[in-house]
User: Which sequence fits this backbone?
């Protein structure tokens, strides 16, 4: 199944990083091994996927309209606001009103940040139990940071300035821990980045299939060099795009074809097989598309624009 193939790829990445000696690695590894988190994680992930299916809302939360995920830039607003409040506490103690305003901005930005992050996590936790576990702890730590920031704002308005400053500092510490786990999800486990970014495909003509292997109107998965390629024969010719969905790496060849539009079987992203453009999210990046040519009963492909 698609999630088994994705899990195999992520496990391969894990083996490639086992020699890392980061000070925080033991802590992150412990979270990734916390099997007790699976039951609540599976229930929550299923619930979230049921609430937000493919469509305009999912596209908005995923960042299809923006061209990349919405969650990461929103986290900068929250972190920057809370950190700014604490910096003012130290460098400009008389700027109490400004610190409160920054805390308010961070708290207001926290809701869309949490919602977009939850949407991204729900698309991935089913394929990798480590993502499920780290994501839950990441969320819990960030909720704690928000509670501390809210407590700081309340304390300040009640005249307890020292308590307010201490709670704000503690909030930033929690946000740092949450950011560490969030960075691990993005940069080590690959939640969010374009899954085809480092494998656009061959720049030179590469034979990929026999012409007779491509019945009209059917999805056919082949490999060009080391790149998985999706081929579709239509009346207007043979079209080819990258077979690995840019959203979460699932095989588009297992999806459904309607005219020139293929729907990913995992999360419902849709792409035009003629140019790889995104028709519907949650994917944010288009699929690499290939020029095709037939010669001597063989079909060859090369990356569009490479010639």
Assistant:
């Amino acid at each position: 199944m698609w999630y088994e193939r994705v899990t195999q790829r992520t496990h391969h990445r894990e083996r490639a990083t086992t020699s890392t000696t980061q000070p925080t690695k033991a802590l992150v590894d412990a979270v990734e091994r916390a099997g007790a988190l699976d039951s609540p994680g599976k229930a929550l992930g299923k619930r979230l996927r049921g609430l937000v299916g493919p469509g305009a809302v999912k596209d908005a939360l995923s960042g299809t309209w923006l061209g990349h995920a919405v969650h990461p830039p929103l986290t900068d607003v929250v972190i920057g606001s809370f950190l700014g409040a604490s910096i003012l506490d130290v460098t400009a103690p008389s700027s109490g009103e400004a610190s409160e305003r920054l805390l308010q901005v961070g708290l207001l930005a926290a809701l869309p940040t949490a919602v977009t992050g939850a949407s991204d996590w729900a698309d991935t936790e089913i394929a990798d139990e480590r993502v499920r576990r780290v994501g839950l702890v990441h969320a819990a730590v960030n909720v704690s940071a928000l509670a501390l920031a809210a407590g700081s704002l309340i304390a300040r308005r009640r005249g307890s300035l020292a308590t307010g400053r201490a709670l704000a500092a503690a909030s930033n510490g929690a946000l740092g821990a949450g950011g560490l786990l969030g960075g691990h999800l993005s940069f080590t486990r690959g939640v969010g980045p374009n899954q085809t970014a480092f494998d656009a495909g061959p720049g030179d003509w590469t034979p990929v299939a026999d012409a007779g292997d491509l019945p009209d109107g059917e999805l056919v998965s082949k490999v060009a060099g080391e790149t998985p390629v999706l081929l579709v024969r239509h009346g207007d010719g043979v079209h080819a795009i990258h077979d690995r969905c840019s959203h979460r790496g699932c095989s588009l060849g297992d999806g459904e074809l309607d005219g020139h539009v293929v729907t990913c079987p995992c999360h419902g992203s849709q792409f035009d097989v003629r140019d790889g453009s995104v028709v519907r999210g949650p994917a944010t990046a288009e699929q690499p598309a290939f020029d095709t040519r037939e010669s001597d009963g063989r079909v060859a492909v090369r990356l569009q624009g490479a010639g």
